[in-house]
Specification:
single chain; 332 residues; phage-related protein like fold; 7-stranded mixed β-sheet; 4-stranded mixed β-sheet; 8 helices; 15 strands; 23% helix
């Protein structure tokens, strides 16, 4: 028996037609292929939680954090250097009290029963949404750490840019131009020197946006300086400037309004946008939490959906008015 298959011409017409249909139906490809859906949901965000990851957390109590501050007395030379028979001149410091009301950041998530049931073979949609919602929540809190302003929203905490802007002498001008200018390392050194305890580099951190970090890197290269690496909280390794960690935060804005000597708007500047660097002594600045970030599934009162709440009660405490500085006026 011959092993050679019959030619197309000698094949039974019915069989030949069926075979031709099987390999030539153009629309079969979109139906007869089993596509694989990756189980990882990609979050379309670029977020760096630098402040949340590095600032100390302290437990709070009551309705607010209360900080007592003392301003030193002026001791004139002629008043304190005395002869053995001179009367002493009184020179005492002055005391003030600062309060930080605990504010609440809260949000809610909801997944319908039917959606969760339909997606069960893919993944637990509720668990995925909780994880993603936490990322959104931390992003809102990170932004508030820099741009929060209780004057704009009475329910919001005051951020670093807001608070430091009210401390006399703690905003250093990189330039007097409203449009900003390239970073000057001498001005950065001045801003660091203005921070109480800056000689102990282990307590100091520089917060910058991605752009601000690139500005600093460009200034170092132009000055032929090189930055080392240091390990900070949670095992992250970051670059340093003069032994100080440079921590990137996407909460630091790049559209700050600058009038040449002070920040006049935290976000939204379109004509002459600038960015800034914040230098912080973590011993004098911390996050005080009445309630740490908490996720709570809610009791169901309907079969149609499941809900959960996410909340945090706390305040950003800048305890010492000399404990941080802002270097403003970096051009974008």
């Amino acid at each position: 028996m011959s092993l050679i298959r019959p030619a197309w011409g000698s094949m039974d017409p019915a069989r030949r037609e069926a075979f031709q249909r099987a390999i030539n139906v153009g629309n079969a490809g979109s139906f007869l292929v089993q596509n694989f859906t990756n189980r990882i949901i990609e979050q379309l965000t670029l977020r760096e939680f630098g402040a949340l990851g590095t600032m100390d957390r302290r437990p709070g109590q009551g309705s607010q954090a209360v900080i007592n501050r003392r301003a030193g007395s002026t001791m004139a030379v002629g008043d304190v250097w005395v002869a053995d028979t001179d009367a002493l001149t009184e020179a005492t410091g002055s005391y003030t009290q600062a309060t930080y009301t605990y504010q609440t950041l809260a949000t809610r998530g909801k997944i319908t029963r039917k959606l969760r049931a339909r997606g069960r073979s893919y993944l637990d949609i509720m668990a995925e949404e909780m994880t993603a919602k936490l990322d959104d929540f931390n992003n809102a809190l990170e932004s508030a750490m820099f741009t929060g302003d209780s004057d704009a929203d009475a329910n919001q905490i005051d951020g670093l840019l807001t608070q430091i802007g009210t401390f006399s002498g703690q905003v250093i001008a990189n330039t007097s131009a409203a449009a900003g200018d390239s970073l000057t390392l001498a001005k950065l050194d001045e801003a660091i020197d203005k921070v109480k305890g800056s000689s102990n580099r282990a307590d100091i951190v520089i917060y910058a946006s991605h752009l601000g970090s690139r500005k600093l890197n460009a200034a170092l290269q132009a000055d032929q300086q090189f930055s080392n690496m240091v390990e900070i909280a949670a095992g992250f390794r970051v670059r340093t400037y003069d032994g100080i960690p440079i921590v990137v935060s996407t909460g630091m804005p790049d559209d700050i309004s600058w009038d040449g000597s002070a920040i006049t708007g935290l976000t939204g500047e379109a004509t002459n946008p600038t960015t800034a660097l914040v230098i912080v002594n973590k011993r004098h600045n911390w996050v005080e939490e009445l309630t740490p970030t908490t996720m709570m599934p809610l009791a169901r009162d309907t079969s149609q959906y499941e809900q959960f709440d996410l909340y945090w009660d706390g305040a950003l405490v800048c305890a010492n008015t000399k404990g941080a500085t802002v270097l403003g006026g970096l051009s974008v």
